[in-house]
Specification:
Length: 363
């Protein structure tokens, strides 16, 4: 990963050096062409003045009228010749237009160069970010598959090699089921992500009681995190029209992530709030866990993105849960947002769905 970062940084430095060279080359071209145009203008003015001086020195009185008619840029005034001021003004205007054209052409070239460089820099950064997310994803896949498989193998070997009492068998069976559930969820997230990208994810919208769904998920997730304190606060009643599987996955992801964060932080509690305001229902999951840096509230919903490095972070996951959760909420006409005051300050995730049109809320 560091090798890729060094290569990307070297490419960016090379590009900036080339941009600097092109900038100075274009600037030099504009200045040089401007100086050339001014020198040509000065040379032409000198030629015209030399012609006027020659006529003054060499032409006789009777020759001057005819010579002046053949040289319209020279005026005969009294007994002497001079360069026509209108002609000088015309030459000056042409020179100024020429210099301005060079400036505009140079500015346009530099603007295109700058825009191209900006696009290239942005593309390189996005490519680097994608490589980092993919690297983290591969590392997380290793963790997500290796840990539960090793646990299942150990439990199975223990049950095969030893004579165990009923209590021990039950504990090992529960551990194996928990690991299988973890693997099932991980594979399900991968499949959901692929279906979302391909646009083939099934979506069957039905009327759902969100309060019942949240209560069931809290009990289910709470059984896997007995040491984490969770509180549900519901105000009002109502139903939404949404895909049941997708909505359950949203709630499960938010609450499961909150439990992981609180457990990794070593303390804290989770508050799940459900409120209805007549046109929409809002689910808020607030935890006192790890939190995330300010400014990351949009990036955490990107596919494969996880805060920090896969080798050093404290929570497990693939970086797909929040990506799938936001997509599921948006497919039902809602939105999912996140907020944190910074690392160690906890986080709040808020999902909002429109209420079913035939439902009325009640306090």
């Amino acid at each position: 990963m560091r090798t890729l970062w060094v290569k990307g940084r070297g490419l960016m430095i090379t590009m900036l050096v080339l941009f600097g060279i092109c900038f100075f080359q274009a600037t030099y071209w504009v200045v040089d062409q401007g100086a050339f145009a001014r020198s040509e203008h000065a040379a032409m003015v000198d030629v015209l003045r030399e012609q006027a001086d020659w006529a003054n020195d060499h032409l006789e009185e009777g020759q001057r009228d005819g010579w002046a008619q053949g040289h319209p840029h020279i005026l005969l005034q009294g007994d002497g010749f001079l360069v026509d001021p209108a002609r000088l003004s015309e030459l000056q205007e042409k020179t100024d237009r020429r210099i301005n054209r060079y400036r505009w052409e140079g500015a346009f070239f530099l603007l295109v160069l700058l825009a191209g460089s900006a696009v290239l820099v942005r593309t390189l950064r996005q490519h680097g970010s994608l490589l980092k997310r993919q690297s983290n994803f591969l590392a997380s896949v290793g963790h997500e598959l290796k840990s539960p498989l090793a646990s299942i193998k150990l439990s199975a070997e223990t049950m095969e090699m030893r004579e165990l009492d009923a209590g021990a068998v039950q504990r090992l069976s529960q551990r194996m089921l928990s690991d299988v559930f973890r693997l099932q969820k991980f594979v399900g997230n991968l499949l959901d992500s692929a279906r979302l990208d391909a646009g083939t994810r099934e979506h069957d919208r039905v009327a759902l009681s969100l309060e019942d769904l949240v209560s069931n998920v809290i009990r289910e997730v709470g059984s896997r995190y007995p040491d984490v304190k969770m509180e549900l606060q519901a105000e009002g009643k109502g139903s939404i029209k949404a895909d049941e599987i997708g909505t359950r996955a949203v709630i499960q992801n938010l609450i499961d992530n909150a439990c992981k964060s609180v457990k990794a932080a070593g303390n804290g509690a989770i508050k799940v709030s459900l409120s209805f305001d007549g046109s929409r229902v809002q689910l808020s999951v607030a935890d006192g866990g790890l939190g995330f840096p300010v400014g990351e509230q949009e990036r955490i919903f990107q596919r494969f993105y996880r805060v920090g490095s896969e080798m050093t972070r404290k929570t497990k996951g693939s970086g797909l849960g929040l990506y799938i959760a936001r997509a599921a909420v948006e497919m039902d006409g809602g939105r999912l947002t996140a907020h944190s005051d910074g690392p160690g300050q906890g986080a709040t995730f808020t999902a909002v769905w429109p209420l079913s049109s035939h439902e009325e809320t009640s306090a």
